[in-house]
Amino acid sequence: MKEEKLDNGVFEHWTVDELAEAFADRSIVLIDVRTPQEYLFEHIEGALNAPMAFVDGADLPSQEGKRIVLHCGSGLRSERVAKQYLAKLGGRIAHLDGGFAKWKDAKRPYIGTDMGTGNPKKVDPSA
Q1: Do the beta carbons of residue 11 and residue 43 sit within 8 Å?
Q2: Whole-angstrom distance, CA of residue 95 vs CA of residue 30
Q3: What number is the average pLDDT over the span 45-72?
Q4: Can you give the residue ranges of every domain in the chain?
Q5: What confidence tens digit (pLDDT) does each residue in 69-118 have?
Q6: What homologous superfamily does CATH list for 2-123?
Q7: What would the DSSP string read from start to end of 23-85?
Q8: From CA 70, how far away is CA 30, in angstroms rounded?
Q9: pLDDT averaged over the chain?
């Protein structure tokens, strides 16, 4: 992971592999800061949705016990929320570098939408 030292803390840029490993061993909480519509259409299974438009960085839960990793579509929105968090609370926070697009490029599984029914479905691009 790449670390960026800022005035109020450390901003970590995680790779897809780092995120997948930490998520698999349940050592993190993954927060998707995209809009509810984007999240409903497709998202990483197990990620929580906290849209950037409604979340100030200081509104995020405590990192006691589990680290928070943010993600969005490309990494821009999650970076903005992470920096808000650091400006208000300090410490350290992480985001998925390249966002959900990188996750999909790496052929990782996610929850998508069945276009015929509108229902959620598991998508495994590596299968």
Answers
A1: no
A2: 9
A3: 86
A4: 2-123
A5: 999 999 999 999 999 889 888 889 999 999 999 999 999 999 999 999 99
A6: Rhodanese-like domain (3.40.250.10)
A7: HHTT-EEEEE-S-HHHHHHSB-TTPEE--GGG--GGGSPP-SSSEEEEE-SSSHHHHHHHHHH
A8: 6
A9: 93
